[in-house]
Amino acid sequence: MVDESKSQEGNNAEGPAPGQPVLPVAALEGGAPGQRDLTGVLNYVVTGLCLAGVAYVVYVGLTYRFYALEHRSIFWAWMVALLFLMYPLRKGKGGKGLSPLDIALAVAGAGMSLWICLEATDIMMRIGRWETYHVVIATAMIVLTLEACRRSAGKVIVILALVFMGFALAGPYLGPLRHAGIPFERHVTYQVLGTSGMFGIPLGVIATFVFLFILYGAILERTGAGRFFADLAYVFTGGTAGGPAKLAVVSSLFFGSISGSSIANTTSTGAITIPLMKNAGYPAEFAAGAEAGASTEGQLMPPVMGAAAFIMAEFLGIPYVHICIAAFIPALFTFVAIFMQVHFYSVRRGIRGLPMEISRLRALWQALWWGGHHLISVGVLVGLLVAHYSPMRAAIFAILTQLIVSSLRSHSRLSPIGIAEVLRDGALRAAGVAAICAAAGFVIGAIVQTGLGVTFSATIVRISGDSLIILLSLSVVTSLILGMGVPTTAKYIIVAALVAPAMMTLGVLPLAAHLFVFYFASEADITPPVALAAYAAAGIARANPMKAGVIAWTLGLGGYILPFIFIYNPGLLLRGPPLDIGLGLLDAFVAVVCISSAIQGYLFIRTTRLERILLGATAAMAVFPLGPTTLLMIPIIGGVVASQLLRRRRLSKGDSTTFNHLGTG
C-alpha cells in the first residue's frame, strides 16, 4: 500500500512531488465485515488453504482438465471450508479461534462436495435412480450450503431459497398457485446431484470466470490502483464546480466496475468522498445520496457488473466480451445522467470545486507518474478479451501483469507476504459471492423443476394483454421487489429466470431483456423503502436514511429510463444498422440531459416551471418514441435553449451579483 506519510509531503504550494499521489486523502481500502480475525497456526492454515485454492483455479483456467460437475464440486469444497472457518455462527462473536462445530461443518461440507467430485461419473449416469444415501447427502449439502450463506451473506437470500424450494415441495397445497408438487427425494437430489441446482450456471461462473476477476480487483486495490483512479477523478473533476460530488461519481464508476457491489462500493469510496462533499457545503443527505447513487450505477459498468456479465453470457450463450460491449454505452449514459444532475445541483447552489494547487496538466502528469503503470494490466485485460481469449486466461494474464508492473515501483511493490495476503483476501471475497451463487442455484433449480418460470412469464404476458409497455411496467415492479435486500448476483439470477422470458415472448431482443431486468434489480439498492446502498451511505454521512434514499433514487433516474430506450431501440446496445445505433445514442443523450435538467431546475441558468415541464416531456418522448411526436423534440429543445441563452445574456448585462448567484459567472 501507499506510504501515507510520504503521500502528504507534496501537499504544499509547489504541489505533489514526483512519485507522489495527487489526491490528499487516505488510501482507499476494502474491509471484510463479519469475518474472524484468526491468529497463529489457524491463520496460517486458512492462508495456505486460500493459496492452494488460487493455484487450483489458475491451473484449471490454463488447462481445462475437469468436467463441469467435477470442477464445481472441487471449487465448492474449498469455498465451503473457508466459509465455515472464517464466518462465525453469530456475527460479532467469532473471536480469534474456532469452535469444534465450525471445524466439523467445514470438514463435512468439504468432504461431501469432494465425494460428489469422485462420484461425478456415476452420478451423471444414474439418471434419477437414487439410493437412500444419495438423498441423505443431498439434504445435508443443502442445509450446510444455506448455513454457510447465512453466515456470510445474511438471511435474505437464504429465505428466498427456502421459499422457492418450499414452493416446489408444497405444490398441491398452494391454492391458486398449486401444482403437482415435487417429491422430497427427487427435489433434493435434483438440487445437489447434478448441474441443475447449486452446481448450476451461477456457481459454475464463479468457479471459472468471476473468481479470477475478484482476485484481479483485490490485487489492483492492494497495489494502489484504486488510489490512482481516485487521483484521475480528482484531476478531471476536482477543481470544477461541485468537484467533491463529481469526484464521488467518477471514483465510484471506477470502483463499481470492478467490485460489482453497490454497498461495498458505497462504503469504500464513501468513507472519503462523503466527508469531502459535506466539507464543501453539500447537505448530509445529498452527500449520502450522491455516493449511493453513483455506487449503484457503477455496478452497471463492465467488466464485472456484479458477476452478471458472466452469468448473462452463459444464460444467452454468447461471448462475454459481447455482453461488455453492449452494456458499456448504456452504463456510460447512466454515469452521464448522475454526473449532470450533480453538476446542475452544484452550479445552481454555487458550490465550488476542490482547490487545485497546481495546474491540471501538471496534476495529470503527477497522477500518471505515480500510478500510470496500473493501466498496463487493464490494457492487457481489454486487449486479450477483444482478441477473443477466454475471460479466464485474460484475467490470469492481467493478474500476472499487475503483479509484475507493480513490483517495478517501490510504492506499489508487494512483498511475498503481501502477495500471499492479497491472494487470501481475494479468495475470501470470492467465498462470499460463491455462497450467494450456490443459494441462488437452489432458486433456479426450483424454478426449472416446477416450471414456475414458464408459468410466471405466461401469467404476466396475459395480464399485460400483449402490451409491451404494460409488460415492461410489470417487469420493473417485479425486478425491484425481488431485488430489494438481495445481493447483486443473486437478484439478477432470480429476475432473469422469472421475468426475462416474458419479455422475449413479445419480441424483445434477449440481450436487451436480460439487461433490462438487471438494471432494475440493481436499482433496488437505491429505491426506497429498501435502499440498502443509500442506508449504508447515510450511516457514513450521519444523515436521514429515507431522505438519502429519495435523493439517491432521484439522482439514479438515468438507470430507470435508459433500459426503456434500449428495449424500444436496441441500437443503444450497438445492435442493428448504423442509423438505429445513431438514433439510439441520440435518444439516450437527449433523455439524460433533459431529465437531469428538469429534475435539478437548471440548464444554462435556472429553469422556469414551464421549461422544466417541457424538458421532462422531451425526455419522455426520447424514451418512448411514438412516431411523429418524436419530431416535436427538436423545436421544444430549441425553444428551451433559446429562452435560456437569451435570459442568460440579459442577466450577464445586468447585475453581476445576481448573475453569479445563478451559477453562470
Structure description:
By secondary structure, the chain is an all-alpha fold. The chain contains 31 helices and no strands. It has helices at 4-7, 40-63, 68-86, 100-118, 120-126, 132-153, 155-169, 184-192, 201-222, 225-238, 243-259, 262-280, 284-298, 308-316, 320-348, 360-371, 374-386, 391-406, 416-450, 452-464, 468-483, 488-498, 500-505, 510-523, 532-541, 545-555, 558-568, 578-600, 609-623, 633-653, 656-661.
Give the structure's gist in a few sentences:
With about 675 residues, the chain is an all-alpha fold.
Q: What is the structural class?
A: mainly alpha
Bulk shape: globular
Q: Alpha-carbon distance between the termini?
A: 42 Å
Average predicted confidence as pLDDT: 85
Question: Count of helical segments?
Answer: 31
Q: What is the strand and helix layout of this fold?
A:
Elements: H1 4-7, H2 40-63, H3 68-86, H4 100-118, H5 120-126, H6 132-153, H7 155-169, H8 184-192, H9 201-222, H10 225-238, H11 243-259, H12 262-280, H13 284-298, H14 308-316, H15 320-348, H16 360-371, H17 374-386, H18 391-406, H19 416-450, H20 452-464, H21 468-483, H22 488-498, H23 500-505, H24 510-523, H25 532-541, H26 545-555, H27 558-568, H28 578-600, H29 609-623, H30 633-653, H31 656-661
Helix pairs in contact: 2-3, 2-9, 2-19, 3-4, 3-19, 4-6, 6-7, 6-8, 6-19, 7-19, 9-14, 9-18, 9-19, 10-11, 10-16, 11-12, 11-13, 11-15, 12-13, 12-25, 13-15, 13-25, 13-26, 14-15, 15-27, 15-28, 17-18, 19-22, 20-21, 21-22, 21-24, 22-24, 24-27, 25-26, 27-28, 28-29, 29-30
Brief descriptors of the model:
disordered N terminus; single chain; mainly alpha; 3 domains; 665 residues; 0% strand
